[in-house]
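Practice set, problem 2.
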Amino acid sequence: MQFVKEYESLMVKPQVYRDRRCRWTTPYDSMANLIVEQQRKRHCSCCMGIWNTIKRYDEMPALPFDVFLTSPPENQVAYLRSIKEYYEKGLDVPTSWRDVWDSPVLVEHFLWDCAFMAAHTTVCELSQLDHDEFIFENGQGLLLCDTGEDIPDTTPSHTGARYALELLKDFPGVELTAHYVTRPYLTRHGDGMMEDESERRGVSSSIMEDRTNHYNEGQGEFRYGALDIESLRDRILDDAQGLRFELEVTHCDEMDRVSEFKKWFDIVNTYDSPLV
């Protein structure tokens, strides 16, 4: 569903590839995620159903996306129903959610979304792509790296270079550079632990409101804190495991700590905000 939304918003349509090995999320994973977060009365999830999808793949047979696409319509509906029933075994779906949870229209729209994605992507493995350079973008902060537990402090992924390095095992001898991007202060969404949290103006009077990170029902408030640069270096060294890396520091016009970063890092590239 998110792919359709983002693809249709683009003025220039890119060539998009997909890997047959990817796990894929259904509306029931996303809704179960949001329902549980509401019942817990906490704000620590983007509510896209990622943790739920990972756990479901571990606990019930899962169809690869391309097998699902080529299945007869009645089998597609039956598979989605099995996911719905998987959640109903352990989830108390509130009355307020029942109309959308039980809606056949939801299933129809999702099947259309799946067909749209299939029509606008090409199945291809990385080793089949003929390019001189590959850029892997990862998200989140190193402090949020997966611990295997669904807790407010983590994300269900490895936030550093691990995934890219695994994908590049088929390309021995390539030159790799990791770019770690940070602001000169800490930020995070959610209710989890945060080092040296402070009001925005308490970190620096020059820090502007981040209009791209508003309060939202899933993640709550956007939070700020002081950044320990030595601790950041230790986390990066642990994640990089000897890989060549450069530090990219954004929002330097809001808080000038360039000399401090250069004390701890060999290569530091600095930018004003916003980063373009």
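Problem 2, part (b): a different protein.
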Amino acid sequence: MLKVNDINVYYGSIHAIKGVSFEVQKGEIVTLIGANGAGKSSILNTISGLLRSKGGCIKFRDKNISSILPHKIVGMGLAQVPEGRRVFLKMSVQENLEMGAYTRRGSEINESIEDVYERFPRLKERRRQVAGTLSGGEQQMLAMGRALMSKPELLMLDEPSMGLAPILVEQIFDIIKELNSAGTTILLVEQNAQMALSIADRGYVLETGKIVTSADARELLNNDAVKKAYLGG
């Protein structure tokens, strides 16, 4: 479904992403793990068109999307939940969800909103509430719900557990598994490597902008070097 080949991203003279290549198959949960500053978010932002690679190629469903505008990439079925949630703080929950459907038209949008409320009952209770007054966990649910409004085939999640209490982290990861079981392919960036690998099919380990290890998630969980660096083992 997604194939990233030899992407290189620069911030001025800083070479942040260095020849990264990986792929995500339909139906998988694939995770990118690594320390802060390893380049995980930059990779997602490059896939979604917010950053541009110097060379290389990104293909989504066999179509080169390397130079396509971000809103058109969303319309193709690839959505991102950004780091830090970035909900529209002065809009209501309902308005945020409606914004997530800006690539779509017709009565199906209302059906999608109800689907989101069914998956996130807490959002339904707060549908008229201003998003800036929600808790961190509720804002994360809203950011995920907003992304789902575009009906993505591939959902990219950037640090969904950041700043959340452990019980909310478990809820968010349960929702990720449910979305995947319902047919959504997932690319997950997460600093909580233990949680990410526990639900993923495969994983890639990033260090200073390069992929240094890749394997099945279970294998990475039992890899001594990965344990020592990321799992507290």
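Answer key, part (b): DSSP finds ten helices and ten strands in the chain. The CA atoms of residues 93 and 127 lie 5 Å apart.
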